[in-house]
């Protein structure tokens, strides 16, 4: 509800919203040869089957939209970022509500610069010629004319982007209508790096450097769950704060930033994690006495075994939990990597 809205203006607005919703439902129902909504509500007894059928008819367009957005992850990410930034404008900025577009453009340009510099820093070889095979000295031209043109185009685009950023930041007239607060920049940047594809792809590497025992080797599975939980938390807090001054875009925000991400987390990400954990669930963790008495080297990766990461098979062989999990996934049979006996569940 807008600030300063009186009951005399709120009631007609609410009535018009209900009327438009009823009209759209009637149009949707007429496509399937069913009666309008008013007739259904007056001539139909409300049994559980009837309510379930009515709910399925009303929710089917939303389900189609959800499947379409999930099939287009880049578009879904962009829409969720725009929705979150717009709501952040409503919560943190009293004026200049268009700041969300400036902020998102600035973050995208900054991400492009970081990704290009990362690509240059991690490029293994700049040699124009590559060998045909490891056992021959014959070389051929690896960087063709098209490849060279593309590389030069990316370099020129990067330079133009950097110059544009410097000019925009240095010129005060270009930012005379852009006054974001530190809290606004902090919240929006945290949400941006948790949803942008470039940072999401590098998050498992950062998580692996923390060397957490409980998620060792499954950073690719835990990373999207952690990031999705973070974005859902930020969106939930923003939605709760917006309830005191409801903007017009709040229903769209709920769908894009709460409903669709939660359904994806509950139907895709969590089952994938449960499937990975179920592989190692039958095999218990090793004790310190077993590590001291038997062996301290993993037979698969030949690395030192640690207490929190070692699993024991029924045939009393010790492995890293991650090594055993990958072996069982690749081999697709429950046999011990050492003695090839069938692994029975405890």
TrEMBL record:
Lineage: Eukaryota, Metazoa, Ecdysozoa, Arthropoda, Hexapoda
Keyword vocabulary terms for this entry: Membrane, Metal-binding, Transmembrane, Transmembrane helix, Zinc, Zinc-finger
InterPro entries: E3_ubiquitin-ligase_domain (IPR051826), Znf_RING (IPR001841), Znf_RING-CH (IPR011016), Znf_RING/FYVE/PHD (IPR013083)
Keyword Transmembrane assigned: yes
Gene Ontology molecular functions: ubiquitin protein ligase activity; zinc ion binding
Domain RING-type span(s) in chain numbering: 298-340
Transmembrane portions of the chain: 99-118, 152-171, 183-201, 221-244
Organism field: Cacopsylla melanoneura
Gene3D superfamilies, per the entry: Zinc/RING finger domain, C3HC4 (zinc finger)
Statement: the UniProt record of this protein carries the keyword Zinc: yes
GO BP annotations listed: ubiquitin-dependent protein catabolic process
Protein's name according to its UniProt entry: E3 ubiquitin-protein ligase RNF139
